[in-house]
Design brief:
The complex is a heterodimer of chains A (about 325) and B (about 500). With about 325 residues, chain A is α+β, with helices and mostly antiparallel strands. Chain A is about 45% helix and about 15% strand. In chain A, helix 2 crosses helix 3 and helix 5 packs antiparallel against helix 6. The chains are: A alpha+beta (about 325), B alpha+beta (about 500). At the A-B interface, helix 1, helix 2, helix 3, helix 5 and helix 6 of A face helix 1, helix 6, strand 23, strand 24 and strand 25 of B. Strand 12 of chain A pairs parallel with strand 23 of chain B, so a sheet runs across the interface.
């Protein structure tokens, strides 16, 4: 909080004063410095602070030193008045450095020279990791991931696919990152295309990696649920990627972004589970694990046919229940 | 936006899969045989090929060759495509005396009384009982609340039809109508002795166009089917189902039932002996059963018991595929077809599929009592193990285990495990679905894949439909336990 609250008298009321015009999201659009009180505000040119707003009066308001040591904002009989927290103030309002008022379409606040600012943030941004270098790395990662997919799924020695897959990955990456960069330019003043490309490349590689890892682990140790619910790992990967994109755009709200991305991921997972349930009557993505890998990757022991048949036998109860359940 | 990445990945994978187009030999998609039942949507006539051609009628995947070899005539099922001679004066006389007892049987939707399917039938002797095919009246038997039936005779008189008895396995039904026959169609007490080449006359109402008689020859008993069928070398079209095939004297030799779609005038009759049995049953029963579903379920249970016993009466034959030994059954009822599919120099697929020709028609969307087994041997000398693994995994993915929205069956329940037989480690997946209408009947599907080699994969599929759980287990156990390695590479 500001220190004016504890100010004993007008001794601390020293200028110069800074009037800040704010955007809706609280960002400062414009600052104007005034040397001394009172500050007259309005559209007319004889004001100390000229409000460029068609909805403001020529002489709209004045800021004066109040008797209690606070500043007072007084309406000069304008038509649209002054609004504070959604309410029009009747006559005058005691304000401090964090009071935001609206006159016409303009939001502003007034801070004295002694206003205490928040401590500086720890800078975790790697400033060297911007531009061409991460952008190039991202594209390379995406292309490598696409090449791996192209090679794994190549069953016909078709050379064309080794051009198509990377081209598609790079093209989609440029469009995706371009959109993020556009948002970044809009809200964060810099495009940071390279950073976004890098995030995209990592995400694509992670998606492929997670899928492969799930398959290998599931096959090696008979963990069929790993591939049956692999789509949730993909959702989590995408959520993490989106978080990094968002954090690149607005680094100051990391905690909130983390929560939002987490919530979105949970929502997507629930939708997938619900969709599977509706379409196939089960929550898993697949009926059984179709993954077959080289025998060297198998770690768990196999069971004899007789054991397996017991398992099949045990399934009867479940099926009969289902049959009886919904006639 | 997340979706975009997901979508992209999926596209990549799908794209890759599409490029491969591995075309695994489909699990024995047998070529359809035309149940001589008419199509309600009447785009008939034109769609056909040749004289005997019909029509989008309900099909029955029995009796058949795999899709790859559509026109290979089986030995003994040679084509009789020569134009038939003009109906003789004998046929004219016969039709004149038979027409009074010939019926068309129509299934009607109770609401609105529009016809859904039509077939033929005939009055037995001087009684008020008429014989027809089960598949002509199946809708009424399964859903009596929705369907009803009426008959029309050659003079255009109509009347209600009451279902008395059904024999699903031989595709026969007995109905009662409100008038008696003239006694022309004689269903003899003893089996009829027929000589190959003997002239037979088939009567009915083909394609709902009007009553007709067609002339052909008796050509022996079909040995490939699970239940006896007579081969009739004459045209039988949709709508003639349930009509009689008689000798010149009016003795019924069989009941029209089906024809081969890929043949010319290769048609099938239900031998009259089964009709005799069914008529005897009708004579004994005090009243027709109110609900035919339990009865049909019982008949299907009897069918599967016989079928599985026959299938497992001796140990399964082992055949070599590469280094593997695979179980098959080759007998009169089970036909196997092989196919090789070399994919350039990269990999090759050898496939073998066997089908037991024992499917039973339950309704036009449900056939059961069938056994099909498929083996695919995929190998590559040049592919990297991981790449080959991707190919094998792709191929092991079976999507046609049925939808969950199917009201006739429960959703599939699957059990998967890595198992080892005496000499072969394998991955086994068993999926089972239960019939909702028929208690105690299940469809079993077993999928297996060998896990012993990095550049070859043996993938097999066994489908047993309409069996009891015990018999499903029996077949699965026998089949799964038979896999092995031959030692030969």
């Amino acid at each position: 909080m500001s220190d004016q609250a504890q100010a004993p008298a007008s001794a601390l009321w020293r200028g110069p004063w800074t009037i800040e015009t704010l955007a809706r999201n609280g960002e400062v659009l414009h600052r104007h410095r005034v040397a001394a009180l009172p500050i007259r505000m309005g559209r007319a040119y004889d004001n100390d602070f000229i409000v460029d707003d068609d909805y403001a009066a020529a002489h709209h308001a004045v800021v004066e030193a109040g008797e209690d040591g606070k500043l007072r904002l007084r309406d000069l009989g304008s038509r649209n008045g002054i609004v504070h927290r959604g309410r029009r103030i009747k006559d005058a309002l005691a304000i401090d450095g964090d009071t935001v008022v609206r006159m016409g379409h303009t939001s502003l606040r007034i801070r004295g020279a002694s206003h205490q600012v928040a401590p500086e943030l720890v800078d975790r941004t790697m400033h060297g990791w911007e531009g061409m270098l991460p952008g190039g790395a991202g594209i390379v990662l995406a292309v490598l991931a696409a090449l791996l997919v192209a090679w794994l799924t190549d069953a016909s020695n078709d050379l064309e696919r080794y051009a198509q897959f990377p081209a598609a990955a790079a093209g989609i990456g440029l469009v995706w990152s371009g959109l993020w960069a556009f948002g970044n330019r809009l809200f964060g003043r810099r495009a940071r295309l390279g950073r976004h490309l890098f995030i995209y490349g990592c995400a694509l590689a992670a998606l492929v990696g997670v899928r492969l890892l799930a398959s290998v682990l599931a096959y090696a140790w008979s963990l069929e649920w790993l591939t049956a619910y692999a789509s949730h790992a993909a959702v989590a990967t995408v959520a993490v990627a989106v978080y990094f994109h968002l954090a690149t755009v607005t680094p100051q709200y990391r905690r909130r972004l983390r929560l939002a991305c987490g919530a979105l991921a949970v929502l997507a997972s629930v939708l997938i589970l619900g969709g599977n349930m509706q379409r196939h009557g089960r929550t898993a993505d697949e009926l059984y694990m179709p993954v077959l890998l080289p025998p060297e990757l198998r770690a768990s022991p196999d069971v004899p046919v007789a054991d397996y048949m017991k398992q099949v036998e045990a399934m009867k109860r479940e099926i009969d229940e289902e049959r009886g359940g919904t006639p | 936006m997340k979706r975009a990445v997901l979508a992209f990945l999926l596209t990549c994978i799908a794209f890759g899969a599409a490029l491969e187009a591995t075309s695994p030999p489909a699990a024995a998609q047998p070529q359809a045989r035309n149940m001589t039942q008419p199509a309600p949507n009447a785009t008939q006539g034109t769609a056909g090929v040749g004289a005997a051609a019909a029509v989008g009628a309900p099909q029955m995947p029995v009796d058949t060759a795999p899709a790859a070899t559509p026109n290979a005539p089986l030995p003994g099922e040679s084509e009789t495509q020569d134009a038939l001679p003009e109906p003789s004066s004998g046929a004219q006389d016969l039709y004149e005396s038979a027409r009074g007892d010939l019926l068309q049987i129509r299934m009607l939707l109770k609401n609105g009384r529009t016809q859904s399917t039509v077939g033929s039938g005939f009055l037995v002797g001087t009684s008020n009982l008429a014989l027809t095919n089960y598949h002509v009246v199946s809708q009424m038997a399964l859903d009596p609340a929705i369907y009803t039936a009426e008959y029309i005779d050659t003079d255009g008189n109509t009347g209600p039809v009451e279902l008395m008895a059904v024999d699903v396995l031989h595709d026969l039904a007995v109905v009662r109508i409100n008038r008696n026959g003239s006694g022309f169609f004689k269903v003899p007490e003893q089996a009829v002795r027929l000589r190959q080449g003997q002239r037979l006359y088939s009567l009915g109402n083909p394609l709902d166009l009007g009553f007709a008689i067609s002339e052909g020859a008796y050509n022996g008993v079909l040995t490939r089917s699970f239940y006896d069928r007579l081969i009739f070398s004459g045209p039988i079209n949709s709508g003639m189902s349930g009509g009689p095939s008689v000798t010149a004297s009016g003795t019924v030799a069989g009941i029209n039932v089906s024809r081969r779609r890929d043949g010319e005038s290769v048609s099938f009759l239900v031998p009259v002996k089964y009709a005799q049995e069914l008529l005897r049953k009708v004579a004994e029963q005090p009243a027709p059963p109110g609900d035919f579903n339990p009865l049909i379920g019982k008949q299907l249970l009897a069918h599967q018991a016989g079928m599985v016993d026959k299938l497992l009466e001796e140990p399964l034959t082992l055949k070599g595929m590469g280094q593997y030994l695979v179980p098959v059954r080759e007998s009169g009822e089970v036909r196997c077809w092989g196919r090789s599919n070399a994919r350039g120099a990269v990999y090759s697929v050898d496939a073998m599929s066997c089908v037991m020709q024992s499917a039973v028609f339950v309704s036009d969307v449900q056939q059961t009592g069938n056994v099909a087994m498929t083996h695919q041997y995929i190998r590559s000398g040049t592919m990297d193990p991981m790449r080959f693994a991707t190919l094998a995994s792709d191929n092991f993915q079976v999507n046609n285990l049925g939808s969950t929205g199917d009201p006739r069956l429960t959703k599939p329940f699957c059990t998967e495990r890595f198992v080892h037989t005496r000499s072969l480690p394998m991955r086994a997946v068993t999926c089972v679905r239960a019939y909702r209408k028929f208690e105690g009947l299940y469809n079993f599907t077993l999928l297996t894949a060998s896990t012993d080699a990095s550049q070859s994969s043996l993938q097999s599929r066994l489908d047993v439909s309409g069996v009891s759980y015990e018999n499903g287990l029996r077949v699965t156990r026998a089949y799964l336990g038979a896999f092995g390695r031959s030692g030969r590479r």
